[in-house]
Design a protein that fits this description.
The chain has one domain. It has six helices and no strands. Helix content is 55%, strand content 0%.
């Protein structure tokens, strides 16, 4: 799972085994920064939005970048240097850059 994805899936209610949870499992324990950010993000989503994200395929998550993704990027300080969250995400996926847009997609 990508960065917060594991935390979001774990924090949200029942997840289908055919949903976007099929991402790499390395991010499930990505760290406390990820858990905190996941809680903040989940608190802002209604149940229908959570379900839509969970029901999306791993490849289909890109659809959430414009709007939700940029909101995540801006609201949790990725442009302001949220080093703890960036490090947490990078621990889960070392094959991406530290650019806020890439970290944002890891979060989604």
């Amino acid at each position: 799972m990508l960065c917060l994805r594991g935390a979001i899936v774990a924090a949200a209610t029942s997840v289908s085994t055919t949903s976007a949870q099929d991402a790499p499992a390395s991010a499930v324990n990505a760290g406390s920064a990820s858990q905190t950010a996941a809680t903040q993000i989940l608190d802002k989503l209604d149940d229908a939005s959570k379900q839509r994200a969970k029901d999306s395929s791993y490849e289909g998550l890109i659809q959430f970048y414009m709007g939700w993704g940029t909101g995540i990027r801006n609201s949790i300080g990725l442009w302001r240097g949220n080093v703890a969250l960036t490090d947490s995400c990078m621990a889960a996926r070392k094959d991406v850059s530290r650019h806020p847009d890439e970290i944002c997609m890891l979060i989604i």
